Amino acid sequence: MIKTIAQAALAVNEKLKIRKNSIRNGSGKTRLSIVTGIHGDELEGQYLAYLIGSRIQENIEFLDGTVDIYPALNPLGIDSITRGIPLFDLDMNRVFPGSKEGTMPETIAAAIIDDLHGSDICIDVHSSNIFLKEIPQTRINVSTAETLIPYAKMLNVDFIWVHESATVLESTLAHTLNSMGTKTLVVEMGVGMRITKEYCFQLLDGVFNLMKNIGMWSGQTVSVREPIVSLNRSVGFVNSDAAGIFVPCAEFGDHVKKGQLIGQVLDPLTGKAAADIKAVCDGMIFTLREYPVVYGGSLLARILQADENGGEKFEK
Amino acid sequence: MTKEIIYTLKSPYRENLDVTAFRFGKGEKAAAVVGALRGNEIQQMYVCSQLIRELKKLEEKGQISPDKEITVIPCVNYYSMNIGKRFWTMDNTDINRMFPGYDMGETTQRIADGVFSDLQGYEYGIQLASFYQPGNFLAHVKMMETGFTDKELMKLFGMEYGIVRNPRPYDTTTLNYNWQIWETKAFSVYASATDSIDVKSAETALEAILRFLYNTGIITKKVRSGYQTEIIPEANIAQIHSDAAGIFVSTAEIGGIVNENDIIGKITDPFDGETISLIRTNFSGIVYFEYNSPLINENTVCFKIIRE
Ligand SMILES: [Zn+2]
What are the tens digits of pLDDT across the range A127-154? Predict the structure, then answer.
């Protein structure tokens, strides 16, 4: 059933509406929420939302509980290829928990939280941005790692990135819901403004595996991959010090050695290379720059360091 | 006066972004003033340009106190200004959400770091700031309550109002907040306009900054005294929200006195012109902010009133 969970009048003859598809079956009380589209330039979640909704509806007899799908938390952003909320120049993932008495973005945020609160699990699907491509991964704040890692492992991602807390991240959807006791997993995959079918299907298998594990899906599922769990410090960042166009020679997912050439920053005017870009550590490239034009500081790659800094350490 | 490029960023397709500081006097780091961090902060850059002109004269006349140094950075993000953009040209990030910055990080983190490392160690820091929302506002000075800066110091600006803000999570990455964490007493001066120049309120802001520099003994040229600043916690400022969407007209005046239940604006239907909402104030007080775009959505802050 399609429901409007929040709305606000726009200046001229239109209402902004946040909608969800609430799919239920059986007598089970378990509720899974799939949210995406907080950032209007991230579209991988659109296809994933479609795939989940379509598979459940075709096999509704296997569902016991409720799956709520919210494909577009920032519909105006998606509509206009705008990352934030158009007009407000505001990153929607910095306005949570919002406020019932607040401004339009705040009241919408508060209504979203109200509606999501009480889900057994919430999955917030992001796809990096237009600049970077990401391997399917779950990002977890270190303070919620113990609770969330078991669920993140069900999702068929390649990588679980446990990161440090930062005050500024307290206003995200995931932080807000987690601090209210609604377990929320942030998924990052692919690249902005594109759909990577392969990743969407990978996550699709993960979502159904999770549904089976929490007792709300009795249909067929496939076994999922074991993700690498990481702490913040086991990630190497490669930022450009030069300006120009970045042309990689390494591939996404490659295992590289420290000092190995992974690409060049080139100057189209002089026909000269402005910089050779080398791996800062041994490991696997799990983030790679997709958008070629770079300034000093532009992130080119993230490298997940080899095993000794990997998951074992966190799990002791 | 000396002029110094404090941070340079290479661009693949444009001239370098050279963030430029103007220094006056010599000696202990007394005060730093920062103008436009965003591409639409034209008024903020303009106030700094007028301040630089004034300080040049004072320096020539020997009216900057011995052993005091003043730094003014009129504009950081002129790249965006030159292409009519508010945030960073490429990735749309806000430099004023990147402090204290990180020299190994992303482009705007590096710019913030380059600027912030030059701004450390000053006793006083003044930022010409703008509101996130579009609108006109009453010139005022503001500070963030971090426990580090004495609120009473705001009185030295002699502006009508000094507002105290309790920082929210997103404030922790602003210049003002980080200045205080690094032990500079930091203030934000708001000079009414943002993307246009309002000469009168620019003069008010300029005079307030000079008055502050005089009252703290950094310059010796006397500045006529200003208002007895009223210190107001942000909680005492009421927000009035639109309860409809359409065409917005304000009938209030910035700085004007309003009484409870007064009509201060209206919203009309964009197609048939009928009035669909009369905006009334729930409080008596002073109009501190008015929304200034002709189109308004529902639940938009259209006025802020300093409650009596
Ligand atoms: Zn995102």
Answer: 999 999 999 999 999 999 999 999 999 9
**Closest chain B CA to residue A100:** B299
Predicted pLDDT at B228? 96
Model pTM score: 0.89
Q: What is the CATH number of the domain that holds B290?
A: 2.40.50.100
- Domain end, chosen from B228, B262, B293, is at B228
Residue type for position A54: S
β-bridge mates for residue A113, sequence order: none
Number of H helices, E strands in chain A: 7, 17
**Model confidence band, residue A308 (pLDDT cutoffs 50, 70, 90):** low
Q: In this predicted model, what pLDDT tens digit does every residue of A4-32 receive, in sequence order? A: 999 999 999 999 999 999 999 999 999 99
Answer whether A22's CB lies under 8 Å from A56's CB: no
Residue B107 is nearest to which of A9, A107, A296, comparing CB atoms?
A296
At A232, the pLDDT band (50, 70, 90 cuts) reads low
B242 in the same domain as B106: no
Report the complex ipTM: 0.83
- Quote the minimal CA–CA distance from B101 to chain A in Å: 12
**Domains of chain B: total:** 2
Distance from CA of B77 to the nearest CA of A (A): 14
CA-based nearest residue in chain B for residue A82: B92
- Taking the C-alpha atoms of residue B204 and residue B161, their distance in angstroms, rounded to an integer, is 12
Q: In A, what residues contact B, Cβ < 8 A?
A: 8-13, 16, 83-84, 87, 89-90, 94, 101-104, 107, 129, 131, 167-171, 237, 239, 242-245, 267-268, 293-299
Please list, in sequence order, all residues whose beta carbon lies within 8 angstroms of the beta carbon of residue A246, skipping any fewer than 6 positions away: A240, A263, A264, A265, A266, A277, A289, A292, A293, A294, A298, A300
Residues B51 and B165 in one domain: yes
Using CA coordinates, name the residue in chain A closest to B270.
Answer: A12
Identify the domain containing residue B259 by its residue range: 236-307
pLDDT digits (tens, 9 = 90+) for B32-45: 999 999 999 999 99
Domain boundary among B228, B247, B274: B228
Q: Do B164 and B257 reside in the same domain of the chain? A: no
- Looking at the fold, whether B299 and B191 belong to one and the same domain comes out as no
Are residues B74 and B209 both part of a single domain? Answer: yes
**Span B166-175, pLDDT tens digits:** 998 889 999 9
Task: Please name each of the domains of chain A with its CATH number.
Answer: 2-230 (3.40.630.10), 235-309 (2.40.50.100)
How big is chain B by its Cα radius of gyration, in Å?
Answer: 20
